[in-house]
Amino acid sequence: MKPGDVIVIYNEDIYPPKKKLSLCLSLKDNLFFLINSQSNYPFSLAIDKENHKFLKRDSYICCGRIFSYPKEKIEKVLKDKSLTVGKLVADKVIELINYLSNVKTLNKEEKNIIMNSFKTSNIL
Questions:
Q1: How many angstroms separate the CA atoms of 50 and 73, rounded?
Q2: Fewest beta carbons within 10 Å, which of 22, 24, 34, 104?
Q3: CA dihedral angle for residue 89, residue 78, residue 18, residue 112, rounded to 10 degrees
Q4: How far apart are CA 90 and CA 66, in angstroms?
Q5: How confident is the model over 80-117, as pLDDT tens digits?
């Protein structure tokens, strides 16, 4: 799994807890954004179904809060390739990185980790 990959994983930190699409920002640092079908979270970036076939409908990357998952859940995703459902297209990765400068709920260190993760993965 690398930055930009989208996985399906059970998230216990949301209500109600359920399986969610999660965007890998840094596997090393265990950082993920959620993808939601509605923009009812601050700092949501639109993502279209046309370029992201894993989506059922146009959706949003929720950039206002970073999630981490227990090691066992990440290992399960790494073993079961069907849980990695797609990845962001290059243009959307660039848009996401640029969008992060507007996100006031993330600190500078978190933003730097995300940007460096994409750069060292040769995605940017």
A1: 29
A2: 104
A3: -50
A4: 21
A5: 999 999 999 999 999 999 999 999 999 999 999 999 99
